[in-house]
Protein backbone atom coordinates (compact mmCIF):
# COMPACT_ATOMS: atom_id res chain seq x y z
CA UNK A 1 0.00 0.00 0.00
CA UNK A 2 3.06 2.36 0.01
CA UNK A 3 3.66 2.14 -3.73
CA UNK A 4 1.77 5.29 -4.64
CA UNK A 5 3.43 7.29 -1.87
CA UNK A 6 6.95 6.27 -2.83
CA UNK A 7 6.41 7.20 -6.47
CA UNK A 8 5.02 10.59 -5.50
CA UNK A 9 8.12 11.33 -3.45
CA UNK A 10 10.33 10.45 -6.41
CA UNK A 11 8.53 12.85 -8.76
CA UNK A 12 4.99 12.85 -10.08
CA UNK A 13 4.32 12.50 -13.81
CA UNK A 14 0.83 11.85 -15.13
CA UNK A 15 0.10 9.88 -18.29
CA UNK A 16 -3.38 10.63 -19.62
CA UNK A 17 -4.67 7.78 -21.78
CA UNK A 18 -7.40 8.73 -24.27
CA UNK A 19 -9.06 5.63 -25.82
CA UNK A 20 -10.84 6.57 -29.04
CA UNK A 21 -13.24 4.78 -31.34
CA UNK A 22 -15.12 6.73 -34.03
CA UNK A 23 -15.10 10.07 -32.20
CA UNK A 24 -14.27 12.35 -35.13
CA UNK A 25 -16.58 15.09 -33.89
CA UNK A 26 -15.10 15.38 -30.41
CA UNK A 27 -11.61 13.88 -30.13
CA UNK A 28 -9.54 16.86 -31.32
CA UNK A 29 -11.48 19.21 -29.06
CA UNK A 30 -11.07 16.94 -26.04
CA UNK A 31 -7.34 16.40 -26.54
CA UNK A 32 -6.71 20.09 -27.19
CA UNK A 33 -8.50 20.97 -23.95
CA UNK A 34 -6.45 18.38 -22.08
CA UNK A 35 -3.26 19.91 -23.46
CA UNK A 36 -4.38 23.39 -22.40
CA UNK A 37 -5.17 22.64 -18.75
CA UNK A 38 -3.11 24.44 -16.15
CA UNK A 39 -0.83 21.69 -14.88
CA UNK A 40 2.20 22.01 -12.62
CA UNK A 41 3.61 18.50 -13.13
CA UNK A 42 5.11 16.66 -16.11
CA UNK A 43 2.34 15.43 -18.40
CA UNK A 44 2.18 12.77 -21.11
CA UNK A 45 -0.83 12.26 -23.38
CA UNK A 46 -1.27 8.88 -25.09
CA UNK A 47 -4.15 8.60 -27.56
CA UNK A 48 -5.12 5.04 -28.53
CA UNK A 49 -7.16 4.86 -31.72
CA UNK A 50 -9.15 1.62 -31.52
CA UNK A 51 -9.54 0.95 -35.23
CA UNK A 52 -11.69 4.01 -36.01
CA UNK A 53 -13.27 4.15 -39.45
CA UNK A 54 -14.90 7.60 -39.39
CA UNK A 55 -11.87 9.80 -40.01
CA UNK A 56 -10.81 10.12 -36.38
CA UNK A 57 -7.14 9.85 -37.40
CA UNK A 58 -7.55 12.84 -39.73
CA UNK A 59 -8.64 14.89 -36.74
CA UNK A 60 -5.75 13.65 -34.64
CA UNK A 61 -3.27 14.76 -37.30
CA UNK A 62 -4.58 18.30 -36.91
CA UNK A 63 -3.35 18.47 -33.30
CA UNK A 64 -0.31 20.63 -32.72
CA UNK A 65 0.36 20.10 -29.02
CA UNK A 66 2.89 22.40 -27.38
CA UNK A 67 6.59 22.62 -26.73
CA UNK A 68 6.06 20.93 -23.36
CA UNK A 69 3.50 18.26 -24.33
CA UNK A 70 3.09 16.54 -27.68
CA UNK A 71 0.57 13.70 -27.75
CA UNK A 72 1.59 10.20 -28.74
CA UNK A 73 -0.83 8.29 -30.96
CA UNK A 74 -1.00 4.50 -30.75
CA UNK A 75 -3.22 2.80 -33.33
CA UNK A 76 -4.88 -0.61 -33.32
CA UNK A 77 -5.51 -2.11 -36.79
CA UNK A 78 -9.10 -3.16 -35.98
CA UNK A 79 -11.68 -2.32 -33.32
CA UNK A 80 -10.75 -4.44 -30.29
CA UNK A 81 -12.73 -2.75 -27.50
CA UNK A 82 -12.10 -0.09 -24.87
CA UNK A 83 -10.39 -2.56 -22.57
CA UNK A 84 -7.77 -3.46 -25.16
CA UNK A 85 -7.22 0.22 -25.98
CA UNK A 86 -6.73 1.10 -22.31
CA UNK A 87 -4.37 -1.82 -21.71
CA UNK A 88 -2.34 -0.82 -24.76
CA UNK A 89 -2.08 2.72 -23.40
CA UNK A 90 -0.95 1.43 -20.01
CA UNK A 91 1.77 -0.62 -21.72
CA UNK A 92 3.04 2.49 -23.47
CA UNK A 93 2.79 4.90 -20.51
CA UNK A 94 5.97 6.31 -18.99
CA UNK A 95 4.37 8.38 -16.22
CA UNK A 96 4.29 7.44 -12.54
CA UNK A 97 0.48 7.63 -12.59
CA UNK A 98 -2.17 6.95 -15.22
CA UNK A 99 -5.47 8.73 -15.78
CA UNK A 100 -7.94 7.40 -18.36
CA UNK A 101 -9.96 10.11 -20.11
CA UNK A 102 -12.71 9.33 -22.62
CA UNK A 103 -12.85 11.27 -25.90
CA UNK A 104 -16.60 11.91 -25.90
CA UNK A 105 -16.87 15.25 -24.01
CA UNK A 106 -18.89 13.69 -21.16
CA UNK A 107 -16.09 14.61 -18.74
CA UNK A 108 -14.42 17.99 -18.29
CA UNK A 109 -10.60 18.25 -18.54
CA UNK A 110 -10.78 21.17 -16.10
CA UNK A 111 -11.39 18.59 -13.33
CA UNK A 112 -8.01 16.89 -13.84
CA UNK A 113 -5.91 19.14 -11.55
CA UNK A 114 -8.31 18.44 -8.66
CA UNK A 115 -7.63 14.71 -9.02
CA UNK A 116 -3.87 15.18 -9.00
CA UNK A 117 -3.74 17.46 -5.95
CA UNK A 118 -4.39 14.81 -3.23
CA UNK A 119 -1.59 12.61 -4.63
CA UNK A 120 0.80 15.52 -5.05
CA UNK A 121 0.22 16.44 -1.40
CA UNK A 122 0.65 12.81 -0.23
CA UNK A 123 -2.93 12.70 1.01
CA UNK A 124 -3.89 9.74 -1.20
CA UNK A 125 -2.48 6.91 -3.28
CA UNK A 126 -5.45 6.57 -5.65
CA UNK A 127 -8.01 9.23 -6.59
CA UNK A 128 -11.40 8.76 -8.25
CA UNK A 129 -13.50 11.54 -9.74
CA UNK A 130 -17.02 10.94 -8.42
CA UNK A 131 -20.06 11.97 -10.44
CA UNK A 132 -22.52 11.12 -7.68
CA UNK A 133 -21.74 14.14 -5.52
CA UNK A 134 -20.25 16.21 -8.32
CA UNK A 135 -21.39 19.63 -9.43
CA UNK A 136 -23.15 20.16 -12.75
CA UNK A 137 -23.81 16.46 -13.21
CA UNK A 138 -26.34 15.41 -15.85
CA UNK A 139 -27.41 11.81 -16.54
CA UNK A 140 -29.19 11.05 -19.79
CA UNK A 141 -31.84 8.86 -18.17
CA UNK A 142 -32.96 7.43 -14.85
CA UNK A 143 -31.93 3.95 -16.05
CA UNK A 144 -28.25 4.89 -16.31
CA UNK A 145 -28.21 6.68 -12.96
CA UNK A 146 -29.91 3.80 -11.15
CA UNK A 147 -27.79 1.22 -12.94
CA UNK A 148 -24.61 2.94 -11.82
CA UNK A 149 -25.82 3.17 -8.23
CA UNK A 150 -26.98 -0.45 -8.17
CA UNK A 151 -23.70 -1.88 -9.49
CA UNK A 152 -21.71 0.45 -7.20
CA UNK A 153 -23.75 -0.83 -4.26
CA UNK A 154 -23.03 -4.43 -5.34
CA UNK A 155 -19.29 -3.69 -5.42
CA UNK A 156 -19.41 -2.14 -1.96
CA UNK A 157 -21.18 -5.20 -0.56
CA UNK A 158 -18.80 -7.67 -2.22
CA UNK A 159 -15.63 -5.88 -1.13
CA UNK A 160 -16.76 -4.26 2.13
CA UNK A 161 -16.02 -0.85 0.65
CA UNK A 162 -17.76 2.50 0.31
CA UNK A 163 -17.07 4.04 -3.09
CA UNK A 164 -19.54 6.47 -4.58
CA UNK A 165 -18.99 5.88 -8.30
CA UNK A 166 -17.81 2.46 -9.49
CA UNK A 167 -17.90 3.32 -13.18
CA UNK A 168 -16.27 6.72 -13.24
CA UNK A 169 -13.77 7.03 -16.07
CA UNK A 170 -11.54 9.39 -14.10
CA UNK A 171 -9.32 7.15 -11.98
CA UNK A 172 -5.79 8.34 -11.14
CA UNK A 173 -3.74 5.26 -10.27
CA UNK A 174 -0.01 4.43 -9.98
CA UNK A 175 1.19 2.94 -13.26
CA UNK A 176 3.06 0.05 -11.64
CA UNK A 177 -0.06 -0.89 -9.71
CA UNK A 178 -2.13 -1.05 -12.90
CA UNK A 179 0.50 -3.21 -14.57
CA UNK A 180 0.44 -5.86 -11.89
CA UNK A 181 -3.36 -6.19 -11.98
CA UNK A 182 -3.26 -8.56 -14.96
CA UNK A 183 -6.18 -6.76 -16.60
CA UNK A 184 -8.11 -8.97 -19.01
CA UNK A 185 -11.34 -7.19 -19.99
CA UNK A 186 -11.59 -6.24 -23.66
CA UNK A 187 -14.62 -3.94 -23.59
CA UNK A 188 -16.33 -1.47 -21.26
CA UNK A 189 -15.85 -3.93 -18.41
CA UNK A 190 -12.33 -2.56 -18.00
CA UNK A 191 -13.64 0.25 -15.75
CA UNK A 192 -15.33 -2.29 -13.49
CA UNK A 193 -12.30 -4.59 -13.50
CA UNK A 194 -9.90 -1.83 -12.45
CA UNK A 195 -12.08 -0.71 -9.55
CA UNK A 196 -12.89 -4.24 -8.44
CA UNK A 197 -9.24 -5.30 -8.40
CA UNK A 198 -8.25 -2.21 -6.45
CA UNK A 199 -10.89 -2.97 -3.83
CA UNK A 200 -9.94 -6.67 -3.79
CA UNK A 201 -6.32 -5.71 -3.10
CA UNK A 202 -7.39 -3.59 -0.15
CA UNK A 203 -7.04 -0.14 -1.69
CA UNK A 204 -9.70 2.50 -1.03
CA UNK A 205 -9.74 5.47 -3.41
CA UNK A 206 -9.89 9.09 -2.34
CA UNK A 207 -12.90 10.58 -4.14
CA UNK A 208 -13.28 14.15 -5.40
CA UNK A 209 -16.35 15.68 -7.07
CA UNK A 210 -16.31 16.14 -10.83
CA UNK A 211 -18.76 17.40 -13.44
CA UNK A 212 -20.40 15.08 -15.95
CA UNK A 213 -22.80 15.48 -18.85
CA UNK A 214 -23.96 12.20 -20.37
CA UNK A 215 -24.57 11.75 -24.07
CA UNK A 216 -27.56 9.96 -25.53
CA UNK A 217 -27.29 7.01 -27.90
CA UNK A 218 -28.33 9.36 -30.70
CA UNK A 219 -25.31 11.51 -29.84
CA UNK A 220 -22.97 8.52 -29.94
CA UNK A 221 -23.12 6.88 -26.50
CA UNK A 222 -22.02 3.27 -26.92
CA UNK A 223 -22.63 1.62 -23.54
CA UNK A 224 -25.90 -0.30 -22.95
CA UNK A 225 -27.75 -2.54 -20.50
CA UNK A 226 -25.71 -5.60 -21.48
CA UNK A 227 -22.64 -3.82 -20.16
CA UNK A 228 -24.39 -3.56 -16.79
CA UNK A 229 -24.79 -7.33 -16.70
CA UNK A 230 -21.16 -7.75 -17.73
CA UNK A 231 -20.22 -5.49 -14.82
CA UNK A 232 -21.86 -7.86 -12.34
CA UNK A 233 -20.01 -10.78 -13.95
CA UNK A 234 -16.67 -9.00 -13.56
CA UNK A 235 -17.38 -8.13 -9.93
CA UNK A 236 -18.16 -11.76 -9.15
CA UNK A 237 -15.06 -13.04 -10.93
CA UNK A 238 -12.73 -10.62 -9.18
CA UNK A 239 -14.29 -11.34 -5.79
CA UNK A 240 -13.53 -15.03 -6.23
CA UNK A 241 -9.92 -14.44 -7.29
CA UNK A 242 -7.06 -14.61 -4.72
CA UNK A 243 -5.48 -11.29 -3.79
CA UNK A 244 -2.26 -10.72 -5.84
CA UNK A 245 0.97 -10.94 -3.80
CA UNK A 246 3.04 -7.86 -3.00
CA UNK A 247 5.29 -7.31 -6.04
CA UNK A 248 9.06 -7.78 -5.98
CA UNK A 249 10.97 -4.82 -7.52
CA UNK A 250 11.77 -5.48 -11.16
CA UNK A 251 13.73 -3.85 -13.96
CA UNK A 252 12.20 -0.75 -15.58
CA UNK A 253 9.31 -1.50 -17.93
CA UNK A 254 10.01 -1.16 -21.66
CA UNK A 255 6.75 -0.17 -23.43
CA UNK A 256 5.91 -3.00 -25.86
CA UNK A 257 4.46 -0.75 -28.53
CA UNK A 258 5.22 0.86 -31.82
CA UNK A 259 3.90 4.43 -31.67
CA UNK A 260 4.66 7.79 -33.18
CA UNK A 261 3.68 11.35 -32.48
CA UNK A 262 0.60 12.30 -34.49
CA UNK A 263 1.20 9.70 -37.17
CA UNK A 264 -0.97 6.69 -37.92
CA UNK A 265 0.91 3.43 -37.59
CA UNK A 266 -0.45 0.02 -36.64
CA UNK A 267 0.41 -1.12 -33.14
CA UNK A 268 0.78 -4.74 -34.17
CA UNK A 269 2.62 -6.37 -37.06
CA UNK A 270 0.35 -7.76 -39.76
CA UNK A 271 1.35 -11.33 -38.92
CA UNK A 272 -0.05 -10.87 -35.45
CA UNK A 273 -3.49 -9.63 -36.47
CA UNK A 274 -4.88 -13.14 -36.63
CA UNK A 275 -4.11 -13.47 -32.92
CA UNK A 276 -6.36 -10.56 -31.92
CA UNK A 277 -9.13 -12.84 -30.73
CA UNK A 278 -6.78 -14.33 -28.13
CA UNK A 279 -5.21 -11.31 -26.43
CA UNK A 280 -4.22 -8.28 -28.52
CA UNK A 281 -2.04 -6.71 -25.85
CA UNK A 282 0.14 -9.81 -25.60
CA UNK A 283 0.92 -9.56 -29.33
CA UNK A 284 2.42 -6.08 -29.16
CA UNK A 285 5.87 -5.74 -30.65
CA UNK A 286 8.89 -4.87 -28.49
CA UNK A 287 10.00 -1.91 -30.57
CA UNK A 288 11.25 0.99 -28.47
CA UNK A 289 9.40 4.29 -28.54
CA UNK A 290 10.75 6.75 -31.15
Describe the structure in brief.
The chain is an alpha/beta fold and 290 residues long. The protein has helices spanning 3-9, 27-36, 56-61, 82-92, 112-120, 142-159, 175-179, 189-200, 225-239, and strands spanning 14-20, 43-50, 72-76, 97-100, 127-130, 137-138, 171-174, 206-209, 212-213.
Secondary structure elements and pairings:
Elements: H1 3-9, E1 14-20, H2 27-36, E2 43-50, H3 56-61, E3 72-76, H4 82-92, E4 97-100, H5 112-120, E5 127-130, E6 137-138, H6 142-159, E7 171-174, H7 175-179, H8 189-200, E8 206-209, E9 212-213, H9 225-239
Helix pairs in contact: 6-9, 8-9
Q: Gyration radius, to the nearest Å? A: 18 Å
Low-confidence stretches: 1-10, 248-290
Strand content is 5-15%
Corresponding CATH superfamily: Spore Coat Polysaccharide Biosynthesis Protein SpsA, Chain A
Largest sheet: 7 strands, mixed
Give the CATH level 1 class.
Answer: Alpha Beta
DSSP helix fraction: 25-40%
What count of helical segments does DSSP give?
A: 9
**What is the averaged pLDDT score?**
78
What is the overall shape?
globular
Terminal residue distance: 34 Å
Order of helices and strands: HEHEHEHEHEEHEHHEEH
Counting helices, strands and paired strands, the structural category is alpha/beta
Major sheet strand order: 3-2-1-4-7-5-8
How many discrete structural domains?
1
In total, the number of strands is: 9
| CATH-level-2 architecture | Alpha-Beta Complex
What is the third-level CATH name, the topology? Spore Coat Polysaccharide Biosynthesis Protein SpsA, Chain A
Amino acid sequence: MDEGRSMTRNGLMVTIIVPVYNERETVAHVVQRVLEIGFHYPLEVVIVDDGSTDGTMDELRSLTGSNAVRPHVVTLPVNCGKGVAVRSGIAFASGTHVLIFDADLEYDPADIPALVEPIAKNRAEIVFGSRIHGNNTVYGSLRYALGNRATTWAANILFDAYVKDLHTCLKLIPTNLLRRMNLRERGFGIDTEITAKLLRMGYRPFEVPISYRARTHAQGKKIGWRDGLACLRVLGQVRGTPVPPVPVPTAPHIPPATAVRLQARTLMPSAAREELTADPVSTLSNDARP
